[in-house]
Automatic annotation (TrEMBL):
Family named by the database record: Belongs to the glycosyl hydrolase 47 family.
Organism: Cynoglossus semilaevis
Enzyme class: hydrolase
Full protein name: alpha-1,2-Mannosidase
One Gene Ontology molecular-function label: calcium ion binding
């Protein structure tokens, strides 16, 4: 953790090459005096607990805190959203006891079977993503684990339950989902934003690979492939599509609102799943994006069929892009674009929702800053990639701005207008899930979520029965709501599923007593409803039911095999 309260000893700074010390050496005049005397990490923690405690005391079980009236409101469905979204941040800040308490509380209090029109996108990224991440981190949080963890566990079951409620939205002629879903009284419009179609693969593939039920990954992939087919002749997608007719209803192409996380998930999905198809999709889009929308390291909005500029604006949601580019190794371009965006931040002390690039002003009715994380998120990735202290400076600027402009006695309020600092009575759940998490991680480059432990070694923890899973060793992929997912757990649980199948096949073959095996047919007949067969099964391949027994440790498997072999010899 960077500690800008540390007395500087230049010698120790040089000797240790400890960033903890060097940071203060660089910034001591600016940031090691006065109000900023506290270490950044402590200031960020205080910010978190001011907002979090206010939510718990005044708003829970509502979705969000209203920081001006000091009460709560439901916004995205009535799932105690802020608490689910904030759960993994508790662990990121090192609070294992509160993580454990809240994980238990949520299991007892949240009900997904309610009559609400829930946003399929928001429920996925905040609820499914938040629960999956908390499930994967529950080993680090010291929770009591089921023998088969990380391939089972109560938070995983909650994530699965909430995702299953979203599945009816995917039952469309195209496979592209409706934007909202209500199991009780469905009244959905078929017009959905692009991100609402293409932002599922991280959570849904994680669910499928942890639980063995392929249906989630399949629907997410089907939606992605359908969307891919609708791109224009010049390789761009628009902003809103009719998911039944496949007609583009809003034809502005860009990287911001309505589209952003679609591109993010192609890249992160490619990394997490080592998936060439997703990467190729992104690279083809990227060529068109660079050709038609990229000017002077800004990204504009253009007509998706003609490539003509429709809106020369920068939107605050676009600020995730430099971070994404850094994941792809496009550092030079990322750094230049970040500088453009940072100049807007400096101009207003925050990022307005829309900024007119030619005029250098905010755009009418889009002057607000709802405490979004995107620029801080990019700063975290770019600092990780370059070590350049510019990114820490952005972090300090963000801390100062948010404290000065948005803090209320009862939390932090969205800024309605960055020009006069009027506030809105809203604190979105992403403030605790993302903004504060990325700020904290920016100042803690040895945090385990960066793939290192506090000594800078590669971190890992064991999971799974018999300690067969090595977790956390390959780093973490953040979903678009900053919920970290562990690719190693996916690999581990898929492998267990595969092992179970192989063992089952051996047992079934041997039980045929030398007769040809009919196991595949029998399996198809007994496949339980809601389960969709084998991961990645292709047309023509025989589908097989999954065994429901827990994964056996290696010794137990050997014992069973030994028994089988002795029975048959
Ligand atoms: C978050 O809910 C997610 O980051 C989403 O992808 C975009 N909007 C907010 C944060 O700005």
């Amino acid at each position: 953790m960077y500690d800008n309260n540390v007395k500087i000893n230049t010698k120790s700074c040089i000797l240790k090459i400890g960033l903890t010390f060097c940071f203060c050496a660089v910034f001591r005049d600016l940031h090691c005096t006065g109000i900023a005397r506290l270490p950044a990490g402590q200031r960020i923690k205080s910010m978190f607990y001011h907002a979090y405690d206010s939510y718990l005391n005044n708003a829970f079980p509502y979705d969000e805190l209203r920081p001006l009236t000091c009460d709560g409101q439901d916004t995205w469905g009535s799932f105690s959203l802020t608490l689910i979204d904030a759960l993994d941040t508790l662990l990121v800040l090192g609070n294992r006891t509160e993580f454990q308490r809240v994980a238990t509380l949520l299991q007892e209090s949240v009900d997904f079977d309610i009559d609400v029109n829930a946003s399929v996108f928001e429920t996925n990224i905040r609820v499914v993503g938040g629960l999956l991440s908390a499930h994967m981190l529950s080993g680090k949080a010291g929770m009591e684990l089921e023998p088969n963890w990380p391939c089972s566990g109560p938070l995983l079951r909650m994530a699965e339950d909430s995702a299953r409620k979203l599945l009816p939205a995917f039952q469309t002629p195209t496979g592209m989902p409706y934007g909202t879903v209500n199991r009780v009284s469905p009244t959905e419009t078929p017009v959905t934003c692009t991100a609402g179609v293409g932002t599922f693969i991280l959570e849904f593939a994680t669910l499928s690979r942890l639980t063995g039920d392929t249906v989630f990954e399949e629907v997410a992939r089907k939606a992605l492939r359908s969307l891919w087919k609708t791109r224009s002749d010049i390789g761009l997608v628009g902003n809103h599509i009719d998911i039944v007719t496949q007609k583009w209803v809003a034809q502005d192409a860009g990287i911001g609102a309505g589209v952003d996380s679609y591109f993010e998930y192609l890249v992160k999905g490619a990394i997490m799943l080592q998936d060439e198809e997703l990467l190729q999709m992104f690279l083809e889009y990227d060529r068109a994006i660079q050709n038609y929308t990229h000017f002077d390291d800004w990204y504009l909005w253009v007509q998706m069929h003609k490539g003509t500029v429709t809106m020369p604006v920068f939107q605050s949601l676009e600020a995730f892009w430099p971070g994404l580019q850094s994941l792809l190794g496009n550092l030079d371009s990322a750094v230049r674009t970040f500088q453009n965006y940072y100049s807007v931040w400096r101009q207003f002390g925050g990022l307005p929702e829309f900024y007119s690039i030619p005029q250098g002003t905010t755009v009418d009715k889009r002057e607000g800053y709802p405490l979004r994380p995107e620029l801080i998120e990019s700063a975290m990735y770019l600092f990780r990639a370059t070590g350049d202290h510019t990114y820490l400076q952005l972090g300090l600027d963000a801390l100062e701005s948010i404290e000065k402009i948005a803090k209320t006695p009862c939390g932090y309020a969205s800024v309605k207008d960055l020009r006069d600092h009027q506030l809105d009575n809203r604190m979105e759940s992403f403030f605790l899930a993302e903004t504060i998490k990325y700020l904290y991680l920016l100042f803690d480059p040895t945090h385990f979520l960066h793939g290192h432990d506090s000594d800078g070694n590669v971190s890992w923890e064991e999971g799974g029965e018999g300690g067969q899973c090595v977790l956390g060793a390959g780093g973490y992929i953040f979903n678009t709501e900053a919920h970290p997912l562990d690719p190693a757990a996916l690999y581990c649980c898929s492998r267990h599923t595969q092992d179970r199948r192989e063992l089952r096949d051996i047992l079934l073959d041997l039980s045929q007593d030398g007769r040809p095996s009919k196991s595949a047919n029998r399996d198809t007949e007994t496949q339980p409803t809601g389960r969709s067969g084998r991961m990645g099964s292709k047309a023509g391949e025989k589908k097989r039911v999954l065994l429901s027994c827990p994964v056996q440790p290696f010794s137990a498997r050997l014992a069973i095999l030994g028994q089988v072999f002795s029975d048959n010899t």
